[in-house]
Design a protein that fits this description.
The protein has helices at 2-15, 18-25, 56-67, 104-116, 134-137, 144-152, 161-173, 189-201, 206-215, 223-228, 267-280, 296-308, 336-348, 380-386, 391-396, 400-407, and strands at residues 27-29, 32-35, 38-41, 46-52, 71-79, 92-97, 124-131, 232-238, 259-265, 284-292, 314-320, 356-361, 373-377, 410-411, 422-428. The strands form three sheets. It has a six-stranded parallel beta sheet with strand order 6-5-4-7-8-9, sandwiched between helices. The protein has a six-stranded mixed beta sheet with strand order 10-11-15-12-13-14, sandwiched between helices. Strands 1-2-3 form a three-stranded antiparallel beta sheet. Strand 2 and strand 3 (38-41) form a beta hairpin. It is 38% helix and 21% strand. It folds into three domains: 2-12 and 268-428, MOFRL domain (glycerate kinase, domain 1, 3-Layer(aba) Sandwich), CATH 3.40.1480.10; 17-140 and 218-265, Glycerate kinase, MOFRL-like N-terminal domain (Rossmann fold); 144-212, no CATH class. It is of the alpha/beta class. Helix 1 (2-15) runs antiparallel to helix 11 (267-280) and helix 2 runs parallel beside helix 3 (56-67).
Length: 429
């Protein structure tokens, strides 16, 4: 079973390798850049590359391999410990910053992008490699008036009244009174951090979290393209958002009518690769959805119930991203995939049917942990009880990481260099 699981996980990640994704979509033919059936003449072009997100390093390496010294300036921004031993030419700069809550270096990264794009002309071509995680890794806060406007505008589907109230409550907890703030000054980093933390803990979907981020950041929601002005932007997008909306991936850095955006990889590709390998190994495989969302505990129990009624030699595949609604002052450690796995294990334990559920954050890190997910089966709970663990207490406290750490069931695969949301695999051997 371990060999099967490893092959399925490897298939998912290989299908969305960012280096290959760029190679598959861009070709250089002399002075011409070929993108599908489009040709862009590069003669006299000032070509710059900005690569941001958890997949930014392999995407930037791929650009460097294709264009070489045709790139006049390059900037790579990724999460801490994601740069590895990657080497770039001297005219490239690399920054590691924080995720999922921005830090000082996220602010520095935003400043560097703003500066790099300050002198663009009609001859400038910006190759923007965008992958998930960039919303926190790069921040360029607008002034306070943008936040005031967000809170006073009528509620929308993306930014509801409850979201506005959550942000207002967060400001109050920070003793921030907008009536006494200079609206022309930039929103402080500490405020961005507090708002980001509150939104992520609220159980809101990443789409709704990014809608807020887009409203209060100069680079997001197409701001990067505005900064390029009369130059041309080609956005190469590795999607980690359900449905692949350019406006929400990395908070829409290249979401602009003047940008030529190309989807180079997404969750569906990873799911299809898992299904293909499963079929080759003699399993009946089915992709149930690539739009899995909702509360992790609920979805975990549902997936367990779905797999146990299937015949032997069945594999069900789910893609998407669930959420966890954390209570205030929660001290538990884990992530949505670990929590989903624990809920699935609880459900599987109720039935005497061999079945497995594998959870995987394709970027290699689930929530604030170094685990990508877990593997559970119908014996997981019995094994935990034999060790004196309390699975229900761990679930109630949102404390799945130490629970699975003691069982040895965590996927500790390290940073993968890609990011296309989550893959859940249910197996009936």
């Amino acid at each position: 079973m371990n060999n099967l699981i490893s092959r399925l996980i490897n298939a998912a990640l290989a299908a969305v390798d960012p280096y290959n994704a760029i190679q598959n979509h861009l070709q250089l033919d002399g002075d011409n850049l070929v993108i599908g059936n489009r040709i862009i003449n590069l003669a006299d072009k000032d070509i710059r590359c900005i690569s941001v997100g958890k997949g930014s390093v392999p995407m930037a390496r791929s650009i460097d391999a294709i264009f070489g010294d045709k790139i006049s300036q390059g900037l790579v921004v990724t999460k801490y410990d994601h740069l590895g031993d990657a080497k770039f030419p001297n005219n490239w700069e690399c920054i590691e910053s924080a995720h999922p809550v921005p830090d000082d270096l996220s602010l520095d990264a935003g400043d560097r992008i703003w500066q790099l794009l300050a002198d663009c002309t009609e001859q400038t071509l910006v190759l923007a490699c965008i992958s998930g995680g960039a919303s926190a890794l790069v921040v360029a806060p607008r002034n306070w008036s943008a936040l005031i406007e967000l809170l006073t505008n009528p509620p929308t589907t993306e930014i509801s009244q409850s979201t506005q109230q959550l942000i207002q409550s967060t400001l109050s907890s920070q003793s921030i009174d907008l009536a006494n703030i200079n609206p022309d000054e930039n929103i402080s980093l500490t405020t961005l951090q507090a708002i980001g933390t509150a939104l992520l803990a609220s159980g809101l979907s990443i789409e709704k979290v990014n809608a807020v981020r887009s409203s209060i950041d100069r680079l997001k929601n197409g701001g990067l393209v505005d900064r390029v002005s009369k130059g041309k932007v080609i956005g190469m997008i590795l999607s980690d958002v359900i449905g692949d909306p350019i406006a929400l991936i990395a908070s829409g850095l290249t979401n602009h009518p003047n940008a030529d955006n190309i989807l180079v990889g997404n969750n569906l590709q990873a799911c299809q690769s898992v299904a293909k390998v499963a079929s080759e190994l003699g399993y009946s495989s089915q992709i149930i959805t690539t739009e899995l969302d909702g509360e992790a505990q609920i979805r975990g129990a549902e997936i367990a119930r779905e797999i146990i009624i299937k015949p032997a030699k069945t594999i069900l595949i789910y893609g998407g991203e669930t959420t966890v609604n954390l209570p205030k002052n929660c001290t538990g450690k884990g992530g949505r995939n670990q929590e989903l796995g624990l809920a699935a294990a609880n459900e599987l334990a109720k039935h005497h049917i061999p079945a497995w559920v594998i959870t995987l954050a394709t970027d290699g890190t689930d929530g604030p942990t170094d685990a990508a997910g877990v593997t559970v089966n119908n014996t997981t709970i019995d094994q935990s009880l034999a060790l004196g663990l309390d699975p229900q207490s761990a679930l109630d406290r949102h404390d799945a990481y130490p629970f699975f750490q003691q069982l040895g069931d965590l996927h500790l695969i390290g940073a993968t260099g890609t990011n296309v949301a989550d893959i859940l695999i249910a197996i009936r051997p």
